[in-house]
Design goal:
By secondary structure, the protein is of the alpha+beta class. It has helices at about 5-15, 45-75, 90-100, 135-145, 155-165; strands spanning about 15-20, 20-25, 80-85, 110, 120-125, 150-155. The strands form two sheets. Strands 3-4-5-6 form a four-stranded mixed sheet, with helices on both faces. Helix 2 packs parallel to helix 5 (about 155-165).
Length: about 180
């Protein structure tokens, strides 16, 4: 049995199909289903934000799977990479309590407290395709950069994984998306 070395190989071995750097699980073969009446509901702002947030969450999960299953074997210090649970919708009471506990608007999604390349640490923000950081995020990113941290905003887990490899100067860990050896 060959050793799986990339996230793409791992996902392919588990039945996923890789297209343009995105992994999708093929639909299982099923018997024809009863026709379901379709309801054309207007897309609200909440639905759009929910889809965007789900995409960002899936990309972040894919990045951390790659870190846990591939990169940590080579760079054990990657275990220090952690998620900051900002940006979720909560009740007003829950949001007020978290604000009182120190949750700050605009804080990036991931933090790696490891000094490399002249920086004190690395902060990563994952965004949905075509989305940019908002004003609070740009202000927080500027503060962190001024304090000597590397801050990057990325669209997709592959871009974020490539940035992690660059930060630790390990091009041999770059996720292989070409399928070539």
């Amino acid at each position: 049995m060959a050793l799986i070395t990339t996230m793409e190989e791992l996902l392919t071995a588990r039945g996923y199909v890789i297209t343009n750097g995105r992994a999708a699980r093929p639909a299982p073969p099923t018997a024809p289903a009863m026709p379901v009446p379709s309801l054309d509901l207007p897309a609200t702002k909440w639905h759009t934000m929910r889809r965007r947030r789900q995409w960002e969450e899936e990309e972040q999960i894919a990045l951390l799977r790659w870190v846990d299953e591939v990169a940590v074997r080579e760079v054990p210090l990657l275990r220090l990479l952690y998620h900051i649970p900002n940006g979720k919708y909560r009740s007003k009471a829950g949001a007020g309590r978290l604000k009182a506990m120190g949750v700050r608007p605009g804080c990036p999604d991931l933090h790696w407290p490891l000094a490399r390349r002249g920086y004190h640490g690395m902060w990563l923000e994952l965004k949905a395709q075509g989305r940019r950081a908002d004003a609070n995020q740009r202000a927080m990113h500027a503060l962190l950069a001024h304090a000597g941290h590397y801050v990057g905003t990325y669209q997709g887990w592959l871009a974020a994984a490539t940035a992690l490899c660059w930060y630790i100067d390990r091009p041999d860990l770059f996720p292989d998306t070409t399928g070539e050896i």
